[in-house]
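Quick note —
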Amino acid sequence: MTESPKPGFPKSRTQWRPVWRPSRRDLMWTAAAGAVLASCRGATGPAPAEAAASHAEAAEPAVTLREACRALGIRHGAARDHFVDPEDPMLDRLMARECDVVTPENGGKWGVFQHTEGNFDWRRFDAAVELARSIGATPNWHTIIWQHMGMPPYMKLPAGRQAELGISEGAYFSPEGTLSEENVWPRFTGVVEAVRQRYGDIFYRIDVANEVFFWETAESHPRQQDRYGFRRGMWWVAAGGAEKGPEWLDPFFHHVHKAFPKAKLVLNEFGIEIDEGWQQRKRAYLLDWLTGAVKRGVPIHGIGLQSHLIGGKPYDSAGMRKFLRAVDKLGLAVHLTEMDVDETRLPRSWSRAEKDRAMAQLARQYLADMLDNARVEELCWWHLRSDLNFIAREHPDLHPHPSPYDENSRPLPLYTAVVDTLREKARTGRVRSG
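Predicted structure written out below.
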């Protein structure tokens, strides 16, 4: 289903309802997604009715994550996708109890709401905005620019240019791609205007650019990055990254700030927490760009750290503390935008309790470093419930616990570790948030 943008997205819930009317294809797609999610719970997992009963019987935690965050002036929230998880009253109740912000996991991505040029499908974006309003939260917009994924085929470079550009990564190119130096700006400003007309200046945070710095692999480095650490991706090519250097992103931030003056604008990145050479180098590239952007007067309000923590990998606490202090000196806030903990690298022989303890300790250390060394303004999970996180979908055999709650909305050890850390920082008064 496609739909044209509507000017003036109504402010009152009584004036607006989601326009989604599922087609036969939608229902089949949703049923398939439901089967995947069911498999994430394992063969012995509860049926929906049993899960609802378990939720009704389970006692709510004495302190919510939102309450612990609010005591430090931090907004708490989570991602949600209403197409993958279309109806889940138990999840809605949990988010109503826990969320000050709601991030559309996929609904705000260009490849979802304008998959073909000029045709808009707002269903998933609408649903996230409506959920936020219905529970008294504020929506985020994730994301406008995504350097290597999340873009429709026409927003990629023509496949015929790949050899000319000398870029081996095929994800930046498509046979249907028409992105060019001539149309990148009108397309960008057109999408920003369409979203502004539909929703108005309502977003708490906007991820202006997502994952524009390199992700090092044996195949990607150094051929896939420029001298400033940027991926030589489709946006970098079309916006003149080779000629403009680190300033190629600046106009995008300026334009979004004019369109959404109330929103917190961030550069959203991943892969800087581990004590490995490439992540340390990426951290340095990122800090260099942030320093230059602040000096140039770019309207950026903070850095978005996805915070996909990896159990079993060496966390670089000292390096992160140094990085965070430098970011703080620039006057920039920190937004933890997609937090979860990946247990797939932990020994398979470990018990569930051993894995939970290791993950909780990692989250505790990471969050303590954030609170002690940066001005944290937001803690957003990549789903509150573990069964809905992408790690659970990709590894259903592990029945993993990447998020603070289980499939029955019961708090996990990860929840306890985060709440305890937040409350300890509130008691000691050494936190930099606010």
